[in-house]
Amino acid sequence: MREIVHIQAGQCGNQIGGKFWEVISDEHCIDATGTYYGDSDLQLERINVYYNEATGAKYVPRAILVDLEPGTMDSVRSGAFGQIFRPDNFVFGQSGAGNNWAKGHYTEGAELV
Q1: Is the torsion defined by CA of 94, 33, 22, 53 positive or negative?
Q2: What does the record list as GO biological process (predicted)?
Q3: CATH code (residue 79)
Q4: Which residues lie across from 66 on neighbouring strands?
Q5: Could you give the count of Cα atoms lying within 13 Å of 31 in the half-sphere of its Cβ?
Q6: How far apart are alpha carbons 113 and 110 in whole angstroms?
């Protein structure tokens, strides 16, 4: 069985990624707390493609969320499924690039990497 690591970067990537995890969680019968509520053996067998099993039969998305500023991360955390992510999978800086590619590439982004 394969395992997929989902990487979402920037404001757009994290906004789309947040919706992606809502849909995937619904398809895999995982609620906003990370609990599996389905009854399909096949579904449970394949749940490890996108999720790691944590303590207490909770499932955590195998995802890394990256941004130069904490604002988008705060939006993801406060969203419907924000609590299922591991806190250490959020990687962010303190100031954004202000839609300036050079600043994001050479200064803010370089420090984050």
Answers
A1: positive
A2: microtubule-based process
A3: 3.40.50.1440
A4: 9, 91
A5: 6
A6: 5
Query: Cα separation of 87 and 42, whole Å?
Result: 29
| Structural domain count of the chain | 1
- State pLDDT tens for residues 26-59: 999 999 999 999 999 988 889 999 999 999 889 9
| Helices marked H in the chain | 10-27, 41-45, 70-78, 101-102, 109-112
Indicate whether 38 belongs to any domain.
yes
48, two tokens:
């490890």
Enter the tokens of residue 21.
């995890």
Q: How far is CA 81 from CA 3, 43, 93, in A?
A: 21, 20, 22
| Token representation of residue 106 | 């050479």
Model confidence, pTM: 0.82
